[in-house]
Write a structure and sequence with these properties.
Length: 285
């Protein structure tokens, strides 16, 4: 659903949540709500594992090497950003496949798209393997990382802020409630809420760059619309309006806020279950 608002500017931009749900159901049936879910599940397992593992590794490395960052939440900001970048670099092709599978229209009557050079038939992928093969065929290894620029620019502050806000909120929780699920859930939810809001426009640019080859050709015979991330931001504001930078944000809240809350809760619970010794509480920044 969020992909539709971020990328299908003609069909979904002016629709609300309920109307968008109806349109997806009309175009693709019930299975349309789960397009790209296989790639998403395959991606999220290594992504989450790498994200939390490398966060701990980077955090310990920063503290052990006495870098001039202190020992407070700033360390979590830097370690979280580095961990997010590492996880994205290792799993990005699967994110690309997820986006393309979620974007495509399955219904034959909707498979023709208009462009500057008339109508063309939108290619329909059969699965993750075909998406990756086509991306590699079209652009080699670089094709598998199409849109990685705005992804990294977006994930570095998002991942950093997520861990920073979470650890800063935890710092204000009494010691006796540090291991409480009732504490982990709201702290994680707020971390996801603020982190996603501040970096969401970059996510919109990323999605649009990822599906450029599925868009109609422009007047110069190319479907490459944005030179880089900042050109994408400027072009979207100029041609689609600034509101498009936040298209689908409300839907994303429904997904991201509980997802981050549950993610941090499971992360803390697993550390307790595995009997990993708790680290010292963060000091004020």
């Amino acid at each position: 659903m969020c992909f539709e608002h971020q990328t299908r500017t003609n069909d979904f931009r002016t629709l609300g949540v309920s109307q968008s749900l109806k349109k997806v159901l009309q175009c693709d049936g019930p299975l349309g709500f789960y397009k790209g879910n296989g790639a998403s599940v395959i991606r999220i397992i290594p992504y989450a594992a790498l994200h939390y593992m490398t966060y701990e590794v980077y955090r310990d490395w920063i503290l052990e090497n006495n870098l001039p960052l202190g020992s407070g939440p700033v360390v979590d900001l830097v370690a979280g950003s580095a961990a997010g970048g590492t996880a994205v670099l290792c799993t990005y092709p699967l994110d690309l496949a997820r986006t393309k599978l979620a974007y495509q229209v399955s219904d034959a009557s909707q498979s023709f798209r208009g462009g500057a050079n008339g109508f063309y038939r939108q290619h329909t992928y059969s699965g993750i393997k075909e998406v990756l093969a086509m991306a590699y065929k079209e652009g080699g290894a670089r094709g598998l990382y199409r849109g990685i620029g705005p992804t990294l620019i977006g994930i570095l502050p998002y991942a950093g802020l997520k861990f920073y806000i979470y650890e800063e909120l935890k710092r204000h929780v009494p010691e006796e409630h540090q291991n409480s699920v009732k504490m982990h859930l709201p702290c994680g939810a707020l971390a996801g809420l603020f982190g996603q809001t501040l970096t969401y426009p970059l996510d919109v640019v990323r999605r649009q760059m990822q599906v450029e080859n599925l868009q109609p050709l422009t007047s110069d015979g190319s479907n490459k619309r944005y030179k880089n991330t900042f050109d994408g931001l400027n072009t979207i504001v100029r041609t689609q309006g600034w509101r498009q930078l936040f298209a689908g944000l409300s839907i994303n809240y429904i997904k991201i806020v509980p997802s981050v809350a549950i993610g941090f809760t499971v992360y803390e619970s697993m550390k307790s279950w595995l009997r990993i010794p708790p680290r010292e509480r963060s000091k004020p920044a």
